[in-house]
Amino acid sequence: MLSRPNTQNFYAEITSASPEVSGSCITVSVHYPDNTSTSFIVDCGSFQERQYEKLNSSFHFDPKKVDFALITHAHIDHIGKLPFLVSEGFSGPIYCTEDTKKIMQPALNDSYRIACDNAKQNSTSMLYTKEDVSTVLDLTRGIIFSKTIQVDKNIRVTFFKNGHLFGAAVILVEVSFPGCKPINFIFSGDYNNKNPFYEVPALPDYVYSLPVYVFIESTYAYMNSSEVKYVFEENTQRFFYDHPSGSLVIPCFSLRIQEMLLKIRNMQKAGLLDSNIPVYVDGKLGINYTNLFLDKKLSCVDEDKYDFLPRRVHYVNRKIRLNRYISTNPQIIIASSGTGSYGPAQAYLQKMLSRDDVLFHFTGYAPEGTMARRLKDSPTDTFVKVGGILTKKNAQVEFTNEFSAHAKRDEIIGFLKPFKNIQAVFPTHGQENSKNIIGEEALLQTSAQEVGILSDKVSFRVGPDGLISSRERF
Fold it and tell me: What CATH number is given for 7-223+405-472 in this structure?
């Protein structure tokens, strides 16, 4: 005679590595009534805030005991620690979308190069090797959107299209055990409900009907989409009106360069920008991504969106870059990195920040400790240290969040509202205030029964019928 399983012994323990925005890594340990267990992580990212850099050299779990990894998208704050994970003994499969797998290779290789440079400059040891990067890529399995895969006998996973980034996914994880109600998880990753290069469909109806635990990002929860100020076009037009022979330099994340090229093209077509102004793309990784796009290697992109290059586009090599520094002709330069803290963007800041005929226009998040934040906090005509070089800030410096690939508060709540049975919402990937805002709004406006604020300071236990417990971590 078969005995019924003790459903009290079917639960999942949840922890997070991230205090705030970067370093995304959620650990889920599922415990079954037969005394077996499965442990997996969702993302394994590097910390980018200066105050958390020391966390890049450790894990809050034993990598050797992790059975598999799921990746929401290929930004370094979500994949940057994968090679270190491997070096510490992880050997399981890594699941992501096919497009994310294609983007991961150049992203991790570039991250390794930067890590080597930093280790050399700081006289520190590398945490992983080039071989560890290769092992990560060997372990990675690309999955097509909306296809459900069985990762083990009790867990199946589905990746749904997400507008945040090429290849980005909202991940559904369904955990089952015979005789027990299932435990279902939704991981939004960094989420956006739109993308200029492809349509973002709603999740299938069956997903909205499931009892779910939803892990939702909260980066820009402090503002609604109606509060976004669209200033890039106006700032660009005003600058070239005042400085007909000026240089517009756009520090840009490598996977945002394509959107900036599209924006410039659309401004040219609308007569808002002189089509004769040359456009220079500087940054090996950004050029690699752009070529990956142009070669139609990304399945998520809509067929009619490949025509995005503006007129007079040039890729920059070292010789061309030297001429850009001293040019007195009008030019637009799109250079990585988006925070200006390294790469070609830092070089342009060193050489051109002192010129009053230059506009540096940042288009992304400026975390504490980055060059972008330092410039934001520094008045014009003061001296700023850029990569160790003291430079007077004569150039104009502007910022905009209109290109942000993160949902705002109303859009995050819009993502949550269709779910009919949210057992708990876990706001993550945001500062504490942002997480609290989303938690409160989720309780007021959605079916969420409970909210747990996810951070590195607390762990949660959940079961088929809801949140069981939480406890402080020290």
Answer: 3.60.15.10
